[in-house]
Predict the structure.
Amino acid sequence: MSTSLYGVIALVETAIGLLLMARLAAGPTISDRIVALNTLSTQATLSVLFFAAFADRTIYLDVALWLASFSYLGAIVWARYLERGLL
Amino acid sequence: MKTIVFLVLASIGLAFSLSGAVGILRMPDLYSRIQCSSKTVTMGALPALVALVVGEGIDSTYASRALLVAVLLLIVSPTASHALARAAYKSGVPMWDGAVRDEVVERKAQEKAKEQEQQKAKERARQPGGGGEG
């Protein structure tokens, strides 16, 4: 598999993330921003994974794993805060 | 052969990610946006991860981490979407003007009517027997 293809995929995922930033900036409620941020973190995870394959550095895979696990934990904590008003 | 499978899976993933992002930008209210966001994970992220597994070979470091991320996303993403939608509804985020029904309100009204009917039946049962109410 040619590695430049991985780079192209990482770039496209980053572009989709940039598209989501418009909703992150404009969302009328906090929940809108949280949804946009969640999707953005998924795109960032994919982008980092493909960039790791592109640059041939396995150490970047840990970044992707961390992003995937902690961003969703963050979303759950935000939901709890919105529902009960305390953390 | 491997390249074709990789390209097909990657393009499916990218297409769904893009359409999910467009949906999040263009949908009219929060609940529709949450729906788009969860489609982005199940049909957008998973095929892309499987494409990475196919491209690098199943016994590589990338494949094991990609599968780990896939399992993690499959477990945690629906949970987070559910919690977010519930919290948003409870904190009073408005629905779209064109939304046709709100099942939570209907269910609550039904339960209230049922409770009132039960109370009335109880009072009716009490009245002919004793009649000793304050």
Residues 2-97 of chain B form one domain. The radius of gyration of chain B is 26 Å. Chain B touches chain A through 47 residues (CB under 8 Å).
